[in-house]
Design brief:
The chain is built from 16 helices and 22 strands. It has 671 residues and is of the alpha+beta class. Keywords: Signal.
């Protein structure tokens, strides 16, 4: 948190807001409540995140039918021009200024100070830090070709281009009205609940993207720049786990209600971003962009004539509010880019003193996590990349920023260690495919899929390569298209990768959270137990929700039992019990892998550990999920449809000792 008092409580927020903001909040409050009423409610006594004994009344899978489907362009990525035009960069910065309580500070000063950090001290406005405050003794040479970048500065001990042309923005007015090219306009509101902490410390990121109007291809395609406010929203009741975030997810779902007008949705989103849901911080709050919170990122392609600089770069900023002196000060300070290790550390011959410790950390921690996923949306590091490894900026996939090129194709101790780790965890991936996965979750790799040439990152070991981005680099655009079925209304365009790869995943995560069963989905700690096998949760090998149950290297026989749950709301319950089962590639005796037996108990109906079925594991593909299906007896189906609250499932796993791990997910009743 930034030092000094924040404005997160309603009382403090009122004191720190401008009168205009206070008036705006109350003018929109009625619209917000009207929007929220039809959505699935969050009962005060909902025990879903409680201890196992309190789970009997947990909702069933799809217990509350969708009264209206999730519309991803209303509830996940909002680019409707009639809505986003109500959001202005000046309002966002004014809110931060109001909360900071710095006398005389203006939104324009905050904007100019941030972009002034791209310039050397001798060129700048002396408003805050500059890119050459710490000069490296041996910076990389300028890149060759049409670009003329010089790495004369540093962030986090890594080289950065200094100065950059985007520093010229410090001399412009981003709030100027049309037709000024320097105007920054809101293009996108983004719901990233899928980034929520699995244990519920926060409710994910909620973002707003501003694009420089001069980047429109019909104006001056060489003058592109984006500012992205990425607010990590804290969970006000972390003791409830992710369930404490239900009001936030229901709010976003409510935006899909076809009965809501554009005006309703606009008012609700303004309230959510600037005022917050009851009990929640607003999205736009200085604490949300400070240490321990989210971040502000600048995605910069600014190439003023004669277009000889600069290549794309992304930099990350945090707000720093310091009240240690006679008066408070608010600065936008460049930081390392989170979860983007510098490619220099991947070089086996690197002389950077951090390289050896990074490569050891990568092998010991990152390799298994990156290898343990079958979906590009689930590639991730097991924890945040240690800050000391974070790059000062993200650049195009060049020599400085390409992990595969940095490691090289020749033999090295680092490459060998990666392969040994992959073999140990039973992964069929090659080191290059593993490095491509790491590259794909970096800022540059996510935005630019390199499909050919040195350091390509599209082959990540899945059934098909990552598709090319039809937008070449960005996922949002300054250009608009007509909204299908709404003649005369427009929205900003989004990339094919966002529309076809990322949004469907985020929509499924949202739906699984709203309507899934916490027991059957293996989503919450303490709801499955075993006296024989070590159980934990995984976020990579997953088919439903955000987690699966990991069964560690087991004994020859292990019994895994669920907490009791209710089938209320599931009716009609079908006669099939299905489970997604992941078979490990590590098998001491490949000719016999094992069996899985399913049992069911409903004590109130006189059913105790009733045999449901058995499945042989030997024919199943290794290192992949397979659906297993068991048929329920007719009397059991009838008992389940009577809405008992004491249903439990037991799975008995008989396998070779030393095999595994195995993963369980998406247990469900179907027809």
């Amino acid at each position: 948190m930034v030092p000094g008092p924040s404005c997160s409580s309603p009382t403090l927020r009122s004191r720190c807001e401008s009168p205009a903001a206070t008036t705006r909040r109350w003018a929109r409050r009625a619209a917000l409540f009207a929007l929220a009423l039809p959505t699935v409610s969050c009962a005060a006594g909902d025990p879903m995140e409680g201890e196992p004994d309190g789970v009997a009344e947990a909702v069933g899978a799809d217990a509350q039918a969708l009264t209206f489907p999730i519309d991803p362009r209303k509830s996940l990525v909002v680019t409707d021009t009639d809505i986003v035009s109500a959001f202005t960069l000046k309002d966002v910065l004014q809110q931060l200024v109001d909360q900071a309580g710095v006398p005389g500070l203006t939104p324009l000063q905050v904007f100019r100070q941030m972009f002034d950090t791209y310039r050397k001290a001798g060129e700048g406005l002396a408003l805050g830090p500059h890119c050459d405050d710490v000069v490296l003794s041996n910076p990389p040479p300028p890149t060759e070709g049409i670009f003329t970048e010089s790495f004369d500065g540093s962030i986090n001990g890594f080289p950065v281009i200094c100065s950059r042309a985007v520093g010229q923005e410090a001399d412009t007015d981003p709030f100027a009205g049309l037709p000024e090219e320097s105007l920054y306009m809101a293009t996108t509101l983004v719901n990233r609940f899928d980034l929520a902490d699995p244990l519920g410390a926060d409710c994910g990121e909620h973002r707003i993207v501003f694009a420089r109007r001069g980047g429109h291809i019909q104006l001056n395609g060489g003058m592109r720049s984006f500012i992205i406010f990425e607010s990590r929203l804290p969970n006000p009741t972390p003791s409830l786990g992710r369930e404490g975030c239900r009001p936030v997810v229901e709010f976003w779902h409510g935006l899909s209600d076809p009965a809501k007008s554009v005006e309703d949705r606009t008012a609700a989103l303004l309230d959510f971003y600037f005022d917050g849901l009851p009990g929640f911080s607003p999205v736009i709050h200085i604490d949300r962009f400070s240490a321990g919170g989210g971040q502000i990122r600048v995605n910069d392609f600014l190439r003023p004539p004669p277009f000889r600089q600069d290549d794309w770069a992304l930099r990350e900023f945090k707000l720093s509010r310091d009240c240690s002196g006679s008066a408070c000060e608010l600065l936008v300070v460049p930081q390392h880019v989170d979860d983007n290790p510098s490619a220099l550390l991947f070089d086996p011959a690197s002389t950077d003193p951090r390289a050896a410790s990074f490569q050891s950390w990568f092998v010991d921690n990152a390799v298994a996590a990156l290898a343990s996923a079958g979906d590009i949306n689930r590639f991730d590091y097991p924890t945040l990349v240690p800050a000391s490894f974070g790059a000062g900026e993200a650049l195009l996939i060049t020599e400085q920023n390409n992990y595969r090129n940095a490691v090289g194709s020749g033999p090295s101790a680092f490459r060998t260690a990666i392969q040994q780790k992959l073999t140990a965890v039973g992964s069929p991936l090659s080191p290059d495919q593993l490095l491509a996965r790491a590259q794909s979750i970096s800022c540059s790799g996510c935005h630019l899929v390199k499909s050919q040439g040195s350091g390509a990152n599209n082959d990540v070991g899945l059934s098909s390569p990552i598709p090319d981005n039809t937008f070449i680099f960005t996922h949002t655009s300054e250009q608009t298209e007509e909204i299908p079925g709404e003649p005369g209304r427009t929205r900003f365009e989004i990339s094919n990768l966002l529309a076809e790869e990322f949004i469907p995943f985020r929509q499924q995560v949202m739906s699984d959270f709203l309507f899934g069963n916490p027991v059957l989905g293996f989503e919450r700690s303490g709801l499955w137990t075993s006296s024989q096998a070590p159980l934990s949760f995984a976020t990579g090998w997953v088919t439903e929700g955000i987690r699966s149950l990991r069964v560690g290297t087991p004994n020859a026989w292990s019994q895994i039992t669920s907490a009791p749950f209710s089938t209320a709301g599931m009716a009609p319950v079908g006669d099939k019990l299905r489970l997604d089962f992941f078979t490990s590639a590590i098998q001491p005796n490949p000719s016999w892998v094992g069996t899985l037996v399913a049992l069911i108990s409903i004590p109130s109906k006189g059913i105790h550990n009733q045999f449901v079925g058995s499945a042989g594991l030997t024919p199943l593909p290794r290192n992949a999920f397979s659906p297993l299906t068991f048929t329920l007896a007719a009397p059991t189906v009838a008992a389940l449809n009577a809405s008992p609250s004491d249903v439990s499932i037991t799975l008995e796993l008989s396998v070779n000792p030393g095999s595994g791990p195995y993963f369980l997910d998406n247990l469900r009743f179907t027809n």
